[in-house]
Amino acid sequence: MNRRTRDDKGQVLSSLVAVLAVVAIVGGLLVLFGTRGNDSVADSGKPAAPKTTPKPSSAPSSSSKPTVPRSAPVSSEPPSAPPVEPSSAPPSAPVSQPASVPPSAPASIPVTERPAVEIYNNTPRKGLAEDVSVRARQAGWIVTGKDNWHGKIIASTVYFPAGMQAEANQLARDLGIGRTKDALDNMKKDRLTVILTTDYAG
Question: How confident is the model over 138-157, as pLDDT tens digits?
Answer without folding.
Answer: 999 999 999 999 999 999 99
